[in-house]
Amino acid sequence: MNHSLYASLLLAPLAATPLQAQCANPAERTDKRPNIILFMVDDMGWEDTSLPFWSEKTHYNKMYETPNMERLAAQGMMFTQAYASSISSPTRCSLITGTNAARHRVTNWTLQKNTATDRKSDVLQLPDWNYNGVSQVAGTPNTFVGTSFVQLLKNSGYHTIHCGKAHFGAIDTPGEDPHHWGFEVNIAGHAAGGLASYLGEENYGYTKDGKPRSLMSVPGLEKYWGTETFVTEALTEETLAALDKAKKYNQPFYLYMAHYAIHVPIDKDMRFYQKYIDKGMTPKEAAYATLIEGMDKSLGDIMNWLDANGEADNTVFLFMSDNGGLSSEPEWRDGRLHTQNFPLNSGKGSAYEGGIREPMIVRWPGVVEPGTKCDRYVIIEDFYPTILEMAQVKHYQTVQPIDGVSFLPLLTAKGDPSKGRSLYWNCPNIWGNDGPGINPTCTVRNGDWKLIYYYQTGKKELFNIPEDIGEKNDQSQQHPDIVKRLSKQLGSYLRRVGGQRPSFKATGKPCPWPDE
Asked: Given its phi and psi angles, is residue 471 left (phi above 0), alpha (psi -120 to 50 degrees) or beta?
């Protein structure tokens, strides 16, 4: 052995070369692609914020406090016509597969394997929809198979993190587990689309000996059991720890921060409760407001982490909700039913704007002009190709057609993909609650006009959305030519993508398509 060389190797740690120091403490990562964060809120209505998405400030904007949404919007672009499905599962399945709900056929909420969740009807036989959700692999009946954009991100070099509500597949199906979709880290995500409790004092729905009290018990947060930690805060703390870890990996990350808030039960977050009581709100509405502000604090905490860790300028931040705000359950909301999303009509579960129009913000330093608004429409499946384009993932292969269209041209002000485009919804199901627009329906939005078709009655409603955002003036009688054109367009689309429709129990015949 060369003993001089051996001695120099022993001394090497005491006098590292510049190259060795660089390898030990890399100053920057070699993959310069942006980090991407999608911050998804559950059941958040368009006006459940102090940030006005309408042209006027409503009384809801004046009551709620979301300073970090305001902060994000000041640094990015607000989308005033962002759409999703009116129910959680269809939206989340469209997000992860890039397909419209009419195509993937997960048109109501999912939970137990091989079990439909529809409310029964004396008149309609509902279709055999995909109540097992979505999956990346075949083999489970009543399941849509699609390639996940998260899988594509991971394959391209992204570190992928899921936190919170998943709701992609039913219990005991492959799609129930976020790991199946390409997430390397999963924090508290499983099959359920709700939660048993927000309260650490109630172990988020578990008994003291670790047994779930319901299928909605939130998994993976045992360290917070018995504490006063609200679930929104626990998820945020776990996310910040995951980001600390991701920072060390020297690769871009994708974070899907999918809060359970503001889904029922409307538990009080005592950090914020008294201030809303002092504002004169009822206990129910004050508790609802605390869920909103707790979500907003989480948003601010993540934004602060980006600032403190030097990642803000190289991170795309997207904010979205999965469906409209709850307005049909007096057990959880006070006031006149179906008005809680004013100026929009109705709420969660409805084909009206209150059920499908969402608060959306995008911040991308150096790309998106701060403090701007976009009034062009986009829909949830558009996130799939957009995020992949942001990540510079090209020439990817999927087993499913992609219905989404990238909205990157809207962010860069270099194009308008909404021009001439129609948006489609299909809900041939009975969600559970009653209310305006909460029926088996299919819908098309083309330009200013929106047509809603009711399967059971054959009724059609036509609204000019920019002029009548509250959908109070049905113009179907005044414009039969537009009704005919949109009916033909809607029926043709549903047949082309394999959309489903109910049948009449009395005759066994299917309900007519809107153009029949």
From this structure: left
Query: Three-state secondary structure along 334-367?
Result: CCCCCCCCCCCCCCCCCCCHHHHEEEEEEECCCC
CA 512 to chain centre: 31
Distance CA 357, CA 351 (A): 10
Nearest to 169 by CA among 205, 144, 198: 144
Reading the block at residue 373, the tokens are 């608004």
Spell 182-214 as b/e; 16+ CB within 10 A means b.
Answer: bbbbbbbbbbbbbbbbbbbebbbbbeeeeebee
Residue type, 384: Y
Tokens of 235: 């998820």
Nearest by Cα to 325 from 86, 56, 117, 58: 86
Phi, psi (5° rounding) for residue 240?
-60, -35
Beta partners for residue 445, in sequence order: 423, 450
pLDDT digits (tens, 9 = 90+) for 190-249: 999 999 999 999 999 999 999 999 999 999 999 999 999 999 999 999 999 999 999 999
Answer whether 149's CB lies under 8 Å from 180's CB: no
Q: Which has the closest alpha carbon to 365: 306, 300, 297?
A: 306
**Each residue's pLDDT tens digit, 180-190:** 999 999 999 99
Can you tell me the distance from the alpha carbon of 461 to that of 477, in angstroms, rounded to the nearest whole number? 9
Listed in sequence order, the residues at least 6 apart from 412 whose beta carbon sits closer than 8 Å to its beta carbon are 367, 368
pTM score, whole prediction:
0.95
Check if the beta carbon of residue 499 is closer than 8 Å to that of residue 103.
yes
For residues 460 and 487, is the Cβ–Cβ distance under 8 A?
A: yes
* C-alpha closest to that of 219 among 201, 240, 196: 196
pLDDT at 369 over 70: yes
CB 200 within 8 A of CB 224: yes
Task: Look at the block and give the residue holding tokens 């129609």.
Answer: 422
Q: How big is the chain, counted in residues?
A: 516
Nearest residue to 168 via CA among 196, 189, 152, 138:
189
Q: Is 438 helix (H, G, I), strand (E, B) or coil?
A: coil
What is the Cα–Cα distance from 448 to 452, expressed in whole angstroms? 14
Q: What would the two tokens of residue 366 be?
A: 């150096």
DSSP code for 325: P
Helix (H) or strand (E) holding 99: none
Closest-CA residue to 168 (of 148, 151, 141): 148
